[in-house]
UniProtKB/TrEMBL annotation:
Signal sequence, start to end: none
Organism: Mohoua ochrocephala
Cross-referenced PANTHER family: OSTEOPETROSIS ASSOCIATED TRANSMEMBRANE PROTEIN 1 (PTHR15644), OSTEOPETROSIS-ASSOCIATED TRANSMEMBRANE PROTEIN 1 (PTHR15644:SF2)
Keyword Transmembrane belongs to the record: yes
Keywords: Membrane, Transmembrane, Transmembrane helix
Underlying gene: Ostm1
Name of protein: OSTM1 protein
Stored InterPro entries: Osteopetrosis-assoc_TM_1
């Protein structure tokens, strides 16, 4: 119905007691907003954004790699021995993880979708699934690239007090206390004796 009359909308949308059409419409709109679905789309919502398509492609490659490497191993494999998966899928998982971190940074700055700072729920759920498989199920881990800078900064901070006290000791002059003896010791003593006599 192309009519924009208020009575027409009222009769169609709110004619039943439950107002099922309005309720469902509000539910789907709230779900769309809460899931940040617009962040997976291009600005004009014509389709998935390029970054989302790239992420989903890498996500599928990661899952395929996990599955392929699990099939090549023995059936009686112990739960903690997934070395083949960790070794062979490390590169794919690292790319996926880096892309996800890049998408998060881009979205905070207003990326392709120009919406809120959260990624859409499909991307976040896909990354959560992959991280859970990688760390909990396969017990794999990525080497931390920040180890050397962290150790360097920590060592520098630990040595700061030593450097500070050493430099203050070397560059400050140690002042000795010199006692200056008063010149009239006897006169003061005699003045006190005189006062005691008169009191």
């Amino acid at each position: 119905n192309s009519s924009e009359s208020h009575n027409c909308a009222k009769s169609i949308l709110t004619s039943d007691r439950l107002q099922i059409v309005v309720t469902l419409s509000e539910f789907f709109n709230e779900t769309w907003e809460a899931a940040n679905c617009a962040n997976c789309l291009k600005n004009n919502s014509e389709g998935l954004s390029n970054s989302t398509e790239e992420f989903l492609d890498l996500f599928n490659k990661s899952l395929t790699c996990f599955e392929h490497n699990l099939q090549g191993q023995a059936v009686d494999l112990s739960p903690n021995n997934y070395t083949e998966v960790c070794k062979n899928c490390n590169e794919t998982y690292t790319k996926l993880n880096d892309l996800y971190n890049h998408l998060q940074r881009m979205n905070r700055q207003g990326g392709e979708s120009a919406h809120s700072a959260h990624l859409c729920i499909d991307v976040e759920d896909a990354m959560n699934i992959t991280r859970k498989l990688w760390s909990r199920t396969f017990n794999c881990s990525l080497p931390c690239s920040d180890t050397v800078p962290v150790i360097a900064v920590s060592s520098f901070i630990l040595f700061l007090p030593i450097v500070f006290y050493l430099s203050s000791f070397l560059h400050s002059k140690q002042k000795k206390r010199i006692l200056i003896l008063p010149k009239r010791i006897q006169s003061n003593a005699s003045l006190v004796n005189i006062q005691e006599k008169y009191s």
